[in-house]
Amino acid sequence: MRFWNSTIGKKIVVALTGLIMFVFVIGHLLGNLQVFLGARAFNEYADFLHNGTHGLLWVARAVLLVSIVLHIVATVQLTRRNRASRSIPYAQHTTIQATTPSLFMIWSGVFLGLYILYHLTHLTFGWTLPGFNHRNVYANVALGFPWPVALLYVLGMVALGFHLHHGISSMFQTLGLNHPKYNRLRRGFAVGASIAIAGGYSLIPLSVLVRIIRL
Questions:
Q1: Under 8 Å CB-to-CB from 175, ≥6 apart: which residues?
Q2: Chain-centre distance of CA 177, in angstroms?
Q3: pLDDT digits (tens, 9 = 90+) for 54-94
């Protein structure tokens, strides 16, 4: 509890849970990109996840869920603590070093949370996808992106890219990977990874729109 209640403890929790989610979004992206291999390959991949992992999928989901909750709680508490430490409001606020993604970190996180909830109802549970078929995941993807839904997904990935851009760099810094010799490389990796991940995910709904992915 002493660790959790400390500022550095909460920052470490945010960094470690962020690392878990970062690994997840990479693995999830690599799996999703198999949709470009065709219906058979993608459905076999989905079947393996649900029936061939012997319960490990649910373990991964549980770890991810706990990580998301801890990440949100610690971030909110750090934000409140930071604001409470300013007993006297600034007469004038001027941003000096903060990047655009860092300024929108909270809002990109809120949008991502709402996006994840929709994504679960859309392609995981099928509640918002007419004709959802849990045995034909490829068909769900091919039929699940009319342009309003595709636009929502792309906006969600823009929010993810903004969140990752600042989050990856801060994560490495909090975990001690911070040195003037490597900071430029760290920031470059954050930019490249955020663009690659957001772009890779966005490629799927856009490919459905232009009929590259189709039944």
A1: 12, 15, 16, 19
A2: 22
A3: 889 999 999 999 999 999 999 999 988 888 876 555 555 45
**Alpha-carbon gap, residue 32 to 43, rounded angstroms:** 11
Instruction: Please count the helices (runs of H) and the strands (runs of E) in the chain.
Output: 9, 0
- Indicate the range of 40-49, 111-120, 182-191 predicted with least confidence: 182-191
Residue 26 main-chain phi, psi, to 5 deg: -70, -50
Q: How far apart are the C-alpha atoms of 118 and 68, rounded to whole Å?
A: 16
Beta-carbon contacts of 33 under 8 Å, excluding residues fewer than 6 positions away, are 200, 203, 204
Residues 159-182 have a mean pLDDT of 86
Place of tokens 């949370």: 113
pLDDT bucket at 1, cuts 50 / 70 / 90: confident
- What tokens appear for 117 in the block? 């909830």
Q: Name the one residue in this structure whose structure tokens are 């995910």.
A: 201
pLDDT greater at residue 89 or residue 182 = 182
Cα torsion 177, 197, 184, 106: sign:
negative
What does pTM read for this prediction?
0.87
CA quadruple 202, 129, 37, 212: dihedral positive or negative?
negative
Please, is 128 exposed, middle or buried when counting C-beta atoms within 10 Å of its C-beta (0-12, 13-18, 19+)?
Answer: middle
131: left (phi over 0), alpha (psi -120 to 50) or beta: left
Query: Are 106 and 80 contacting, i.e. CB atoms less than 8 angstroms apart?
Result: no
pLDDT score for 93: 47
Return the structure tokens found at 58. Answer: 């649910």
